[in-house]
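Workshop exercise sheet. Pairs work together: one partner reads the sequence aloud, the other fills in the structure field after running the prediction. Swap roles for the next sheet.
Pair: D.N. / O.F.
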Amino acid sequence: MKIFVDTANFDDIRTANDWGIVDGVTTNPSLAGREGRPFREIVEEICQIMGERPVSAEVVATDTEGMLKEAREVSSWASNVVVKIPLIPTGIQAITVLCQEGIKVNCTLCFSPAQALLAAKAGATYVSPFIGRLDDIGHDGMEVVAQTRQILDNYDNLDTQIITSSVRHVRHFVRAALIGSHVATVPFAVLEQCFHHVLTDVGLERFLADWEDAGLSIF
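Structure field:
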């Protein structure tokens, strides 16, 4: 499973990138708005950090022509930009056109397998089920990921990849991998939590204490 970090914060992106485990970045208008910088500047700098790895940047228009105009502009900023388009009728129409033009698309705000299938039929590069927001209203968000994976696996002509999104905790991250989600996009704080286990901390402390007590040295 690929790991994207879901943030527009440069310090977090650089730290995660230094770990060597990050395959891309996703942003959205809310995340970009927190950084207090021009949107293009944010996207271009993230793309530079990521190199060839995908960076999702979202349009804000809601009509088809507006989305197409914004998507073409945003995709011109760097070769690794993936344009985020919302899963609404005008968005699906825009995705169909953009994919025919060779522009990579992440279809966002997906909340059902039926919606995900529409995104795949339109040719989206990625579709992003928002599992945390589904959990918030009493649904099992991961079930949407599992059903979407089954649907996509049924047909050889559907190449869309699932990005498990709105990840709230490590359990979401693990279930996404167990189900076979192609990607999980994870807030930096959740990605940090994946490193930690109380037995790791205790074990390391004990090893170091034993090493010091024995007076050992590598050099």
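Discussion prompt: The chain is about 50% helix and 15% strand. What would you look at next?
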